[in-house]
Write a structure and sequence with these properties.
The protein has 100 residues and is an all-alpha fold. 73% of the residues lie in helices and 0% in strands.
Length: 100
């Protein structure tokens, strides 16, 4: 059975992310096994998984708050630091409350 419609959260992932997901599934969810396959440490793989989780969460937020999703995406991709992202999101939420 072929997937005719790719879910939004999957469409926003790059090829490396999809490859990581495949390795993770094939390793029955063992981060230790995935670390061995990539030749890296467990904490490195854990960090990669955490970033992937953040990407998926961001894509779910996009429909409701595209600006906030953009800021989170920039932070996850290390284009801006976490503190700056948090500040921008808080200021954006303040202006949205004022508009009501």
């Amino acid at each position: 059975m072929a997937i005719e419609i790719v879910p939004e959260w999957m469409a926003n992932l790059d090829d490396e992310d999809v490859s990581f997901i495949k390795k993770f599934i094939m390793a029955s969810g063992s981060l230790k096994e995935v670390a061995n396959q990539y030749g890296v440490t467990y904490p490195t793989v854990r960090l990669r998984l955490d970033k992937l989780i953040q990407k998926i969460q961001i894509s779910e937020d996009t429909a409701n708050e595209p600006f906030i999703a953009l800021i989170k995406r920039l932070a996850v991709n290390e284009k801006i630091d976490f503190g700056t992202a948090k500040l921008l999101i808080n200021e954006y939420k303040k202006t949205k409350k004022e508009d009501k």
